Amino acid sequence: MVGLLAGCVSPIALNRAVIAYDDAVTDALSQQLLINIARAYHRQPIHFTGVSNIAATFSFQANAGAMPSPGGLAGASIMPIFGGTFAENPTISIVPIEGEDFTQRLLTPFPQNKLTLLLRQRYDVDLLLRMMAQEVRLFQSPHYEIYRNSPRDTANYEMFRRVVLHLSAIQDDNKLYAEPLPLIHTWTIPARAIEAEGFQALQKEFSVRHDPISNTYTLRKHTAGPILITNYDPALLSDEERDQLNDMADDWDVSDIAFDIRADHYGGAWPMRGVFRLRSFHSILGFLGKAIGADAGYHVDKDVRTPPILNDENPDLTMELEISRIPPSEADISVRWNDRFYAVKTTGPYARWNRDAFQLLFLLFQMTVTDIPRVGVPSITIAK
């Protein structure tokens, strides 16, 4: 019976401890994100601290005994007594997240593949680009016009918002593609230049065709080009169209993500071609911090050529925060910093949007941070 008691208690206690520690670490990071948005607003340094290790020791002790029943010995019966103790001794190591490697990742704009990864998780392209893109460059032959994602610059900001709303409307109808541009590279070489061993190696990487008239081999290889957001399947493009788009990509940065909206497909009433330039995580925190003050977003109507937007979802702010002197009563999570409470607004018509925005911010931080070192750095160890 004693063994059974200990066996039942220990897994339950362990499960509760694992969940409690997981909640505590998640809440700590969420609060740090809110604090750093506030720091960005007040132009204070951005800084993060992480939990590098949690080591918890559990001890379970059970005992048993017996005593006479309340009727005394005359009753000839014995009352069993079972007891036990449970002790938890956690050791938590806390380390600052800093150093040149992390700083470079913090300041480096996100590459295009990060945005497409999130798009495939069904995040709203409007939310993604409002948070992650610093500007859109619309191609207006023979050059690009730049429109910055900054509410302070009214004309630029409103064009930026209209472009991302247009893409969002196409996404709402499941007509938005975000795929690598499929490319085919071709080479022609004389047959005499290839030896038998080399020919076998070529066949593993290329499709090979021999032309007996010219005695040459034509080598073809399929490769993935730059990622392109479109309102059509890029696999249906002709080789000439793919090469043309790929030539344009020579001027793009790794943090640029191009789009090509064509007239003969859904959303084609406003054909456009251009590039979004993505931000770094540090810039995202700065953007959200500025939104607390005078550089807040505001309502922008979609373009008249834009198809209907699902549920007319078009919030003024990328992520709305509540700031107060008292703890917010209905917030999912809040943090106190400099005598103010900061929380993501999770009430009202855009509660889901704001939760998605904060979840996106959390994921972007995870994409930015390196593995937290476990040894060899200054740390704080808390032993209970």
What does it look like?
The protein has 384 residues and is of the alpha+beta class. It folds into two domains: 2-69 and 76-99 and 377-383, no CATH class; 100-318, no CATH class. Helix content is 34%, strand content 31%. It contains nine helices and 13 strands. The strands form three sheets. Strands 3, 4, 5, 6, 7, 8 and 9 form a seven-stranded mixed β-sheet that branches. The chain has a three-stranded antiparallel β-sheet with strand order 1-2-13, covered by helices on one side. A hairpin with a 4-residue loop joins β6 (207-211) and β7. α1 (2-41) packs across α8 and α4 (125-132) packs antiparallel against α5. Mean pLDDT is 83; it is low at 374-383.
Fold blueprint:
Elements: H1 2-41, E1 48-68, E2 78-97, H2 100-107, H3 112-119, H4 125-132, E3 133-140, E4 143-148, H5 154-172, E5 177-190, H6 196-205, E6 207-211, E7 216-230, H7 239-249, E8 256-261, E9 272-278, H8 281-290, E10 321-324, E11 334-337, E12 340-344, H9 351-368, E13 380-383
- Quickly count the domains: 2
Derived from helix and strand composition plus strand pairing, the structural class reads alpha+beta
Order of helices and strands: HEEHHHEEHEHEEHEEHEEEHE
Estimated radius of gyration: 30 Å
Q: What is the oligomer described by this structure?
A: single chain
Beta-strand content estimate: 25-35%
Short structural summary:
The chain is an alpha+beta fold and 384 residues long.
Keywords:
7-stranded mixed β-sheet; alpha+beta; 384 residues; 9 helices; disordered C terminus; 3-stranded antiparallel β-sheet; 2 domains; 34% helix
